[in-house]
Design a protein that fits this description.
- This protein has helices spanning 8-19, 104-109, 133-143, 165-174, 184-197, 201-208, and strands at 28-31, 34-37, 41-43, 52-54, 61-64, 67-70, 92-96, 115-120, 148-152.
- The protein is an alpha/beta fold.
- Helix 5 (184-197) packs across helix 6.
- The chain contains 6 helices and 9 strands.
Length: 219
């Protein structure tokens, strides 16, 4: 009988062990002996038994020899009544900048999507090819009330549009929200959620910058 080599059994047992612990809370991924906040988890390896990493945040705990060793134990005071959100707006486009990108692409996306997330270079800069193509395209989105969120292609350390002049100008002129230390996955999910719950750009930004399950620290 051929048995596949798998870590599924160990991961399942570890997940049940952690979930049943009185100090456990929140939504987490338990994988390879590591307990990772769900909003901080990213799959960085396709085959390894340690496929998931915790991005810009420490591990919640580790599980060794059936023992749970907590690194972070800050169980929040939860409301007595749980609030369940079901509405999500999937009309969010994730646009990855590449050298030579044109602002015309953003114009082509405008009618089909309600929000835009731009995976920018480095800390959150936009290309400048001697024209105002990107600025004018993004300004069209913003003036129509459609959120444009700036994120970064870089996995670790997050975005900070305040470092370079081009980022400062875009943020100051258009009031763009940015992902800061959130993972790209959390940024997409949160944009879909905040978009569905809000009616104005101000409401969207307020929800987007509300920390959920440790997803955002740098403000």
């Amino acid at each position: 009988i051929h048995l596949d080599v798998t870590d599924a059994r160990t991961n399942l047992l570890d997940a049940l062990r952690f979930a049943s612990h009185p100090r456990a809370h929140g939504v987490n991924i338990v994988f390879g002996g590591n307990v990772i906040a769900g909003t901080r988890a990213k799959k960085e390896r396709s085959k390894s038994y340690h496929a998931f990493s915790s991005i810009n945040y420490p591990l919640i705990a580790v599980i060794q020899e059936n023992r749970i060793i907590f690194y972070i134990d800050d169980k929040p005071k939860l409301p007595q009544t749980a609030v369940f959100y079901e509405a999500m707006n999937p009309r969010v486009f994730l646009y990855k900048l590449i050298p030579g990108s044109s602002g015309a692409i953003l114009d082509a996306l405008f009618d089909r999507f309600d929000a835009l997330i731009i995976e920018a270079f480095g800390v959150g800069g936009l290309p400048d090819y001697g024209d105002d193509g990107f600025f004018l395209a993004i300004r069209r989105w913003v003036r129509s009330g459609k959120p444009v969120v700036m994120a970064t292609q870089v996995t670790h350390e997050g975005s900070d549009m305040g470092i370079y002049q081009v980022g400062q100008y875009m943020k100051r002129s258009l009031g763009l929200p940015e992902s800061f230390d959130m993972t790209l996955e959390a940024t997409v999910a949160k944009t879909m959620w905040a978009l569905a719950q809000s009616k104005t750009p101000r409401e969207f930004q307020s929800l987007f910058y509300t920390a959920v399950n440790r997803d955002l620290l740098f403000l």
